[in-house]
Fold:
Amino acid sequence: MIDLYYWTTPNGHKITLFLEESGLPYTIRPINISRGEQFDPDFLRIAPNNRIPAIVDHEPSDGGEPLSVFESGAILQYLAEKTGKFLPSGSRARIEAMQWVFWQMGGLGPMAGQNHHFVQYAPEPIAYAIDRYVKETARLYAVLDRQLAGREFIVGEYSIADMACYPWIVPHERQRQNLGDFPNLKRWFDSIAARPATIRAYELAESINRAPVMDDEAKRVMFGQDASTIRR
Structure:
């Protein structure tokens, strides 16, 4: 059994996509990040960076004590290796899949995240920051669009690379991107959106977070932390 510490963010969706696709039994442990639940000491012991998602595997492959894993890319790799699913077995194909997971972790996610912040949440519009991150998001979309030319999925077969990237494309309108400008990406996006596991994962999100909150208190909690948060 997997305990998934989760909230309804792109990084959280990555893990529900995998779990729904793989059929691994799991339990959702909601962590409402808009109300500061990620700073609870019990959660800190599982996720030292105070971020979702994180998992606890109560039946790790080595037969030992329950194992906790944080960081969405690491969780995807761990679950793929545990199940033998959604990560190509050949060494070259595996490397190709993992480099796209790291591309999302180091590029698409952080840049789109900054896009979200400055376009949606900054207390005042900063034209330079908005332009910078909207353009960089578009560049990354173009990179993925080029990779998908002639491929059904990012590395040919459906893998954790697709699960890592897809949730960060879902809010494309908020990112001021037009999927019609990226035809290969749009075809891929529509294909994943129609998968039964994807539909289940996003229905689950709606059942957990029925009324998303982004009031002043939520902004303070989510965007107002510094080193003192960790040291206290």
